[in-house]
Amino acid sequence: MKKLLYLSLCLGFLLSCNSGQETIHFRGICVDDPQGIEGLYNSERGFRLEVALNVGDGNASHAIEELREEVAKYASDSVSLVQSYFYLTDLVGKDLSEKDFEIMQSYFDELQNLGMKAVLRFAYERDFNGRAPVGPTEKQALAHLDELQPFLEKNKDLILVVQAGVIGAWGEWHSSVHGLENSDDIKRSILEKLLAVVPKERNVQVRVPDYKNILKNTPELYNRLSFHDDFIVIKADKWDGDMHEGTNNFDQIVKESPYLAVDGELPWGFWSVGNDPDAPSAGWIIDGHETARRLFLQHYTSLSVIHNYKEKHENTKDLKKLPKYSMLVWKETPLSESFLIENKMPVSANYFQKKDGSAVERNVFDYIRDHLGYRLELQELSLTNGKNKGEKEISLSLINRGFSTLFNEHDVYFVLIDEAGEVTEFKTDADIYTWQPYNPDDINHAPLVHQVKSTIKLPVDSKEGNYKLGLWIADGSERLKYNPRYAIRTANGDVKWWVSKDKRYGVNILTDIKL
After folding, report:
1. Could you read off the pLDDT of 95-110 as tens digits, one per residue?
2. All domains in the chain, ordered by first residue
3. CA–CA gap between residue 47 and residue 366 (Å, rounded)
4. What pTM was estimated for this model as a whole?
5. Distances, alpha carbon 156 to alpha carbons 202, 396, 483, in Å
């Protein structure tokens, strides 16, 4: 049975070696460690899938089947997120019914079953063959958002971020039936309503900074707005929303993104690489090195793994052979440590090594996969005898090697695991929101070292003996807290990942300890 102990932060200096101090150093993940090839699965970061649910369709079975198929297809890419389109097309002019909410809930229940979270977008119009025939008026869209508020609150723990959506084709704020995107007043009212109904702990993402700037005079709303770039092509293009490097939009995202969850996607490969007549040219490969650099500079949390990778599209059905899309090229594109150092990008000392210390080559795809969002690498553990008998003062240092900090609710614990596998929890005061990769104002991007400190002592009803000391970073939600799929794994090759027999805990084992 778990024993929950709330402990105060240890503020004292470490005692000298003759006071019983022990120090343990950790290394990062080498290429021949278990997570060196396929990547490290962690919640709320990394590559994301894309699945659409037609809410008015009568059931969620098709979307759930597609979700399961996509999870299986991309299982080797350590994917924990799904961009989830909830289309309300058939509900224009109607109130949301109890059945509609049941359909949406069944989809979220399957997300939980799979250990995943949503990048959520509500939309109405699909622009596959010209402009969509059905779309909401401003009044209808606002009414639906009001109806959705309790549903969003109920499921906020399964939502990383909400994308503004609602307006236009695919919710991308263009080509809407009623021209909603042509009025700043309408765009403002949609944004204000979204920020009112989406739980205040969650960001709302917009396509381009121009939309965010509509609310620049209301900072309490403005500061919750983040970005999703749906057309990452690196070089300047008429469709890129003026988001390429050297523009004010690019610089705005660089400046504001350290504190926001940022998402994006490449264009479809059939368009940029294939034979689509509207593509700029056949064989246009999105530059992998510059994409990695951009994702780093703009602190990307997530990126679509659907676009320009393993896709199969109806426009390519007449091709004798599918083209090699950009991300497949990235897998064959060497990435040098010198490129990362020159561009002040995060990298572990072990990333270009095998466990025996020999050097290895890495590629652009793996680097992007591994560094989207957070990547917590433990550095050093210090154990010191406490002031009272049986106490241990613990200090653990870590570096976030990822592109961004962590978001949403997480609690950080030290745990003791006895020989029978019983867990004792010691909650710390660690604040995961402060775990930035580097100080955003530091032009040199020097990695920050973060500390987790606490004092532990066996409860009075526990036996003295041998224990395992672990770090447990749990989801802050009550329904997800005791689900190891939502616990955070550190990026260390010499730290064992332990899952309890009852499947309630996912713990990073730090060391054996005797108490």
Report:
1. 999 999 999 999 999 9
2. 3-31+374-514 (2.70.50), 39-314 (3.20.20.80)
3. 11
4. 0.93
5. 8, 30, 16
